[in-house]
Amino acid sequence: MSSTTDFDRVARPDRWWRSAVVYQIYPRSFQDSDGDGVGDLPGITSRLDYLAELGVDVIWLSPVYRSPQVDNGYDISDYTEIDPLFGTLADLDELIAAAHTRGIKLVMDLVVNHTSDQHAWFTESRDPSSAKRDWYFWRPARPGSEPGAPGAEPDDSQAAFAPSAWTYDPRSGQYYLGVFSPGQPDLNWENPGVRQAVYAMMRWWVERGVDGFRMDVINLISKPAELTSGRTIEPGQGSLRRVANGPRLDEFLAEMNREVGLDAQNLITVGEMPGATIEVAQRVTDPARRELNMVFTFEHVNLDQVGWNKWDLADLPLPRLKANLAQWQEGLAETGWNSLYYDNHDQPRAVSRFGDDSPEHRVNSAKTLATVLHLHKGTPYIYQGEEFGMTNAPLTQIGHYLDVEALNYHALAAAAGVSEEQILRSLARKGRDHARTPVQWDDTPYAGFTTGVPWMAVNPNYREINAEASRRDPGSVFGHFQQLIRLRHAEEVVREGRFELLLPEHEQLWVFTRTLGDRALLVIANCSSTPAELPPGLPALDGAVLVLGTHPDGATGRLAPWESRLLRLGER
Ligand code: TEU
Fold first, then answer.
1. Does residue 216 carry a catalytic annotation?
2. Residue ranges of the alpha helices (H) in 440-518?
């Protein structure tokens, strides 16, 4: 690992991330610069002025490291090399410098719960006599079974993207653990050598000028006792759920913080934590514990499903969604800090899922959803394309899906006798591919994403829905996001004001206040496609000033479909 001297670094004042807005880029689908149909780093650099115009403070890059791309880069074979698909280290250095020049910081995706099965560490570990054997989880076949034979897996736990969490390796006649897929073997964080290797890699990137880390499934790194004591996963729970929030999680995160100097250098840190509760987040984001700044919870994006099975669809009445976000606001009001998101590369598009993406309501529902999210307390995350209201794509047959998770679900569900029509209905609602269609920059061929043939079809609605059209129209979704970001930068009450949900049971209206001293803001949002009367029980509106609204002529007593108003209430 070469030492680095003149890399571009920027000042990071204390707790700067509490007033920041983060923009997530999925490099594969953002902007292609060399016509190979796949987005890349020079493509991102070419769009920095657009991001500066939007006003965001941070770019989070989904993985660009060398990878066999089994899970689109979340399977890393070399942590300090850029995959040629995306460019070179020099391209990344240039992106970091160019972003910093525009006052935009850059966050890397840290994927260290697992590596790729092509990573040198794993290749070495496959040799039972190697010093790295214990860097991963190896187990013999189930007692009394023929190693490698169907059903001989050490236990019956399923992986997130494969039938079993255990993969047979003929080289040693044993099985290794991969809670996501065979291409993503889990690292054994009990081994101090693993941890120190990860910390050294993180320091290398910090030296290179990055401003922080988004940490992939970081609450899976401390495995439960049965696994760390040589046994297998207790039956009955999906492997992901069983290995979440392990006994040494806080110890490892505090050690990482110390060893890498995360707080010492005011680096931004956000931990993706499927299965994390408010209690886990209170501990992990408590500044006194020096672990992480914030976490990504999955609770609000798992509400429209039955139990832990994302494909088992359920309706989502507005009061349930409101209540969940309010619980997290309340839970982290005193200590800790929230992240705020609807969208990312694993979730369907917010306006299609939580809003109404019909031509009649798409713009206002995208704006109103954004107002509601960005006026909650925490750090907002914008996913590429959300800022101009990109929608789910018309994926109507299995051939339209490319994502390993979708294809695995289709195979398992079909084998279990689920009808193709039912499978496609679940995928159309929850598939990750919706988030991964190329960004729609303009109405030119392939929406300006590439001069080649895109790796994934562009959403055919790009002629109407694209960044260029939205940028040009001040009343657009893009213009609305610009105003929300400006508000957060200008208004302390938006950043630090206490949150209070009002009318929690209202089926159409999402209403809450933010208060800081004598300053108070009120959000009234109609999150339905039908008009809503303003009910009693709202704070006195006399003297209230409209700060940001979706409908210029907001009638006093009622809200139009997907109308929202941000009001500054009279002095308290
Ligand atoms: O996602 C973790 C995760 O829990 C989701 O993948 C989840 O299984 C589902 O897709 C969303 O409901 C992270 C990354 O964000 C994801 O892209 C990777 O596939 C996964 O980890 C493995 O690295």
1. yes
2. 467-472, 477-490, 492-496
